[in-house]
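I am still getting used to backbone structure tokens and would like to learn alongside you. Label the sequence line and the structure token line clearly, so we can match residues to local backbone shapes. Go ahead whenever you are ready, and we will take it from there:
>
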Amino acid sequence: MADYRVVGQPVPRTDGVEKVTGAARFTADVHLPGTLWARALRSPFPYARIVSIDTSKALAFPGVHAVLTGEDVRGILYSKGLRDVTPLAVDRVRFAGERVAAVAADDLDTAKRAVDLIEVAYEELTPVLDPESALLDDAPILHPDMNSYDGLPRKLDKLSNAFSHEVREKGDVEAGFAQADVIVENTFTMARVHQGYFEPHSCLVWIDDANRVQVWASNKAPHSLKLAMATGLDLPPEQICVNPVVIGGDFGGKGAVLDEPVAYFLAKRTGRPVRMVMDYTEELTACAPRHAGIIRWKTGVNRDGTLVAHQMRALFDSGAYGGFRPRAPLDGAFNPIEPYRVANYYLESIRVYTNNVPGGQMRASGGPQARFAGESHVDCVARAIGMDPLEFRLKNLIREGETTATGTRFEEIKAIETLQKGAEAAGYGSPKPANVGRGIAMHHRAPGSGESVVVVTLSPDGSVIVGTPVFEQGTGAHTVMRQVVAEGMALPPERVGVVMLDTDATPFDSGLGASRVTRISSGAAFQAVEEAKQELVHLAAELLGWPEEQMTIRGEEVVHEGTGEHERWADLLARVNRTIIKQAINRDTGRSPVVGFTAQVAEVSVDPDTGAFKLLRFTSAHDVGTVINPMGHQGQINGGIVQGMGQGMMEELRVAAGRVTTANLGDYKMPTVCDVPELRTVLVESAIGVGPYQVKGIGELANVPVAAAIANAVEDAVGVRVRDLPITAEKILRELRQKSGRPAAQVPARGKGQIPGGPTSSPKHTRE
């Protein structure tokens, strides 16, 4: 790595002290005079017609200022992409937990009591509760007006609950299968998973004296929120200002528009600021978790390990609405095929409407589901031909100079090296006790694209301030920007301040998400500080008569490199009473040819009598560019692994008859520090990255392959394959009993269309 002063150093989080001392200001901490509290009435049914709503008792309750129903917002549809979401249910409810009415009152207790006074008559309808049933010809169409929705990928010739159907294909799949020595088929299912942030969704909306809509919200993309509200509410974008707050965790879940339109209409009706803060029951039952999915793989392979053909169908349960994700397709479904050579494939990714809780964004949308299925299936294929899974991957992974299976050309491919070093660090081939297994899984990802704005201010008092519309939500984004500017100014990072800017202060910024900040925002910060330095040097040349080409900025001084003379740049600014303000916009919207590869190895022990298993150690190898902050980088890796453990081993948003039953954090289990095994990290350095510092993303690389690595380790330990997430002792025991011919343990199934599948066989098929 180049010789940097600040970049590459382990710098503590910029926001750390504020958060641990309670000084950080979250949305719920914003107080405006006269603020009302709002509360939503939610549907108890997954699918029903609204026969009537009587709000008279609620309106008459002391302290209530307004009540809204769907009739008040009829025709309003919003979201950041597919506009199919209405603020309140109109005519019918499509999932248990959908907002039906809302109350604004003097305080939260009054709002809660008033909501209970609203009387709603429903006519229950037969719900569509699994994605396979949603595709049947006789399934009710849950969104009969979908062809009129803005953001629909394409108009449907025949209405269907499948509102997004993406296909990727190459070669002749059937011919490939005919040529294969062995064909392996598997079906994998994945549960819904909540993002698990601790700050619930909250918002505060105020229409000020100038008729401007002032918004405070726990949303990671303020400019996108502003545009979504403007479009959905038919307001000029310049009428809306989203104000900065700290966000208490995100993991993808703080990108959707949720209660903000409801708060807006209540604020408009009452003429007062309106606050809405969800409780965790609302979070778990109505707030866009990771999609449940059913993914089927069929692969033809020759006995020498050559992949001949793939067929994959990924079916994602989008729930009642599709608009809680900016783009309709879940592109991550196609990623598992990219790093392996194969001549023929046919891949489908389908999202369907059901009457379940809507699916949304969570750390690498579609990626963990797809990688669990894809990397589990890779192991199954290897074992079907008697080849070690490590050897099989090494044979089929693309190398430098080759294109991916989908035709993309990556720069400096480190897949082989990353896998080898990860396996070596994990002791993959070393002897191990009985019932202990090791499993491998891989992932790759390009850093996200988008637009970023950074403002650097140099003041006569000597202060250096970085202004950004990126709201800090725990990733350390502000720390990275601070380090880049400190590096440019040759200052210690603590001399650089960071302020969050509202949406009035800057042009559009994509915000957080898609592992884009290090790529996009660091580039904008670099541009801004370089432009500020150029203006400072030009000013110094005017005032001091020094040649610009012989000047450099070194900390707090302008230095003449030829003579050694130096002056404090703050004094120069004070002399002419000038402040230097430079705004840089980094638009980097294409897919980067630079990707980071991840190879992970899980080691587990399994009790064959009970199915109980323990994750003993976990090794994660990463192909990295320049690591701007090793402390934050390692935090992203460790946190990602633990989050992947949750999806792989315990987390499940359980649904029964269309209703979420894990409605509190006691029932919804997430990993704690007691669950974390020994973690090992291996960094494979790469000279090529993106931007001025040659960086790669990390946020969505560590979590994605974890579940597959664990599943592969379980099979290595006791010879059974669990194809249904999360992996539990009960499921392992059931598979062990089926393998031995004993009666299978009674493990609750998910319901029609979501029962774990196994491989099928034909004369050329191999049963796993």
User: Anything to note?
Assistant: Confidence is low (pLDDT under 50) at residues 745-768. Residues 517-544 form the longest helix (28 residues). The radius of gyration is 27 Å. The chain is about 25% helix and 25% strand.
